[in-house]
């Protein structure tokens, strides 16, 4: 039985990767110039293009069975429609976890070690009083960190925090335990933990439950939060509510890597808010994730060839992650 893979992310696969796929007996197709019959013969899609996927789903003759994404998030997919067509979807959760986690630690240390004061002092040719500077510094092990989400990214963050002697509290849908966390709570039972947090980190996937989760009601629980960090999905945060909390000194510092709208408009008030880092969805950045992505694809390909199932990273289209 021949298996056809439509490559919608050619930049993610090297010549060696393509040869390895061919060696498995899989034919790699490119979207340009395909006939309707060739489109219908596609069993697997690697990457994503909404127009191409629509064409496949609209055809009653389509053989599409599986989509391997090159992203971790899936909130941009037509999940209900894919489920109706019984299409399996796998993501690359874990491929970007380490760089995102290291970026989160960098954001925290930038604030807890008051690096902005050093940068400003250098610009002003000013030698700061070290004792005065120390009053604005703190140790990570002294901070109560609460991480929303306990998946791969969150566990990588927790592991790095553990190295600083910090054992965070995790928040997830059911309150199930997770590696690296001192304890976990459910999303619906997080209020008491939030009220006493020093640092809150958002790594949540985007679902109906988590959309606008960090809203005015959430920030009303907070009176003295040191740092708020968001590296999950942009639509889980009400940016206006965060700005209000910062302007009323209930949230002192923040770092955002995901936003309601990307790129962030030039006239957004986020740009002018003091003590707020605006990162252009750059925390996953690293020259080296493609081999990890291919490893996930290859494992799934081998399993798919054997019995039509996936070995790893299959997402639940009903739950949205």
From TrEMBL:
Keywords: NAD, Oxidoreductase. Transmembrane segments: none annotated. Gene3D superfamilies: NAD(P)-binding Rossmann-like Domain. GO terms for molecular function: NAD binding; oxidoreductase activity, acting on the CH-OH group of donors, NAD or NADP as acceptor. Residues 106-282 form the D-isomer specific 2-hydroxyacid dehydrogenase NAD-binding domain. Pfam families: 2-Hacid_dh_C. It comes from the Bacteria. This is Phosphoglycerate dehydrogenase. It comes from Levilactobacillus bambusae.
């Amino acid at each position: 039985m021949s298996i056809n893979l439509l490559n919608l992310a050619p930049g993610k696969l090297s010549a060696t990767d393509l040869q390895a796929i061919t060696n498995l007996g899989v034919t790699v197709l490119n979207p340009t110039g395909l006939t309707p019959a060739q489109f219908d013969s596609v069993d697997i899609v690697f990457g994503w293009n909404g127009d191409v996927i629509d064409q496949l789903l609209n055809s009653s003759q389509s053989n599409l069975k599986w989509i391997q994404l090159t992203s971790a998030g899936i909130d941009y997919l037509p999940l209900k429609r894919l489920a109706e067509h019984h299409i399996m979807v796998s993501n690359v959760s874990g491929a970007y976890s380490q760089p995102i986690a290291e970026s989160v630690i960098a954001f925290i240390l930038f604030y807890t070690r008051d690096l902005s004061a050093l940068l400003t002092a250098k610009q002003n040719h000013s030698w700061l009083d070290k004792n005065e500077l120390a009053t604005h510094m703190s140790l990570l092990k002294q901070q109560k960190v609460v991480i929303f989400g306990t998946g791969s990214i969150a566990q990588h963050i927790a592991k790095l925090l553990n190295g600083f002697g910090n054992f965070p509290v995790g928040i997830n849908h059911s309150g199930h335990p997770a590696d690296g966390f001192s304890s976990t709570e459910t999303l619906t039972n997080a209020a008491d933990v939030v009220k006493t947090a020093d640092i809150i980190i958002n790594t949540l996937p985007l679902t109906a439950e988590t959309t606008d989760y960090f809203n005015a009601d959430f920030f009303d629980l907070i009176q003295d939060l040191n740092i708020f960090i968001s590296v999950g999905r942009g639509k889980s945060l009400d940016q206006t509510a965060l700005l209000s909390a910062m302007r009323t000194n209930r949230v002192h510092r923040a770092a955002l890597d995901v936003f309601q709208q990307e790129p962030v408009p030039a006239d957004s008030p986020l740009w002018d808010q003091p003590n707020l880092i605006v990162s252009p969805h750059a925390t996953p950045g690293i020259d080296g994730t493609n081999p990890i992505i291919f490893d996930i694809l290859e494992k799934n390909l081998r399993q798919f060839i054997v019995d039509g199932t996936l070995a790893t990273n299959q997402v639940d289209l009903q739950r949205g992650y």
